[in-house]
Every structure is written in structure tokens, then in C-alpha cells.
Amino acid sequence: MWPADIEQKARHIIRDFTARGLKLATAESCTGGLIVGALTEVAGSSSVIDRGFVTYSNEAKIEMLGVAGETLAAHGAVSRETAVEMALGTVTNSAADFAVAVTGIAGPSGGSAEKPVGLVHLAAAGRDGAMRHREMRYGDLGREAIRLATVRTALDLVAELAHAP
């Protein structure tokens, strides 16, 4: 169902988190649940995955994750600030030790000169206060390719944060 590299990354996270007794939650906008879908494809993921939030609309980001309306008004849904607040809100509103959040423009429309198609902000947060952010500019690769690239980057970001000193 998934490209081999995504399956491998997901299996690694499930195996690692299971061994360490850790829980993970996701907050997804442009990927619409693909990250948690890739993770739950792995047998045994129920011991790791706490929940996944699909917060496509600004209202969902506010209501489900506590993203500030002021943040959305000042920076937009596709921004570092929103991704960070989504990740923090996911940790706060779940039983997860770690959370990953993504928000971006998968296209084919919706882009602008300032925020082109292929721009994605990802953030990972730990209950311990650890935080990582990554801004990706994948380019106009097509909707499916942008979404799959975002899943790859999100899984890498989770693995990186979970092993940060």
C-alpha cells in the first residue's frame, strides 16, 4: 500500500516506540491523515499510536488543538507558528509523549508567490518541551508527491526528536 521507504520508516518508529513505552499522536492538515495511516499500517501500532487529528480547516485547528485565532490571522495556516502550535496542542490534547504536526499547500491550486504550492511546515513536540520545526519547499511536484514527501519528512522528524539528547 505504501512505498517501501515509508513502510520502513513507520515500522522503525513503531518498533522503537514500543520498546521504549512511548506514545505518539499526529495533527495533519495537508496530509489528511496519511501520517497516522502509514503508522497504523504496521502491526502492533495500537501500543504506540494514541490518536490522530485531521485539522484541515482553521476552525478545526482552533477547536481541536487550541491554535490561537491570532496566530492564524497574523501568520496564516501554512506557517511555522501554526505548525508549532498544532504540535503543542496535540501533545496537550492527547496522552502522547511525542506529536508531529503538518500544514502546507499540496496543490494544485492555493499557492501564491509568498507561499507556493509545495510549501509545508512540520513541527514535532515532546511532552518534555522538546521541539523541532522544518520548513520544506518540495516544489510543484503534484499533489500526491507532495503529500508522500510530507509523510516521509514527518516520520524522519519524529525519529529525530525521539532520539534527541
Question: How would you summarize this macromolecular structure in one to three sentences?
Answer:
This protein has 165 residues and is an alpha/beta fold. It is built from six helices and five strands, in the order H-E-H-E-H-H-H-E-E-E-H.
Describe this structure as you would to a colleague:
With 165 residues, this protein is of the alpha/beta class. The protein has a single domain (4-162), classed as Maf protein (Alpha-Beta Complex). Helices cover 44% and strands 20% of the residues. It has six helices and five strands, in the order H-E-H-E-H-H-H-E-E-E-H. The protein has helices at residues 4-20, 34-40, 58-65, 69-75, 80-92, 143-162; strands at 24-28, 49-54, 98-104, 119-126, 131-137. Strands 2-1-3-4-5 form a five-stranded mixed beta sheet, sandwiched between helices. Strand 1 (24-28), helix 2 and strand 2 (49-54) form a beta-alpha-beta unit. Helix 1 runs parallel beside helix 6. The radius of gyration is 15 Å and the shape is globular. The chain starts with a helix and ends with a helix. The model has no long low-confidence stretch (mean pLDDT 97).
CATH class: Alpha Beta
Question: Helical element count?
Answer: 6
Helix content: 40-55%
Protein structure class: alpha/beta
Give the overall average pLDDT. 97
GO molecular function: nicotinamide-nucleotide amidase activity
Protein name: Damage-inducible protein CinA
Enzyme class: hydrolase
EC number: 3.5.1.42
Describe this protein with a few key phrases:
alpha/beta, single chain, five-stranded mixed β-sheet, Maf protein
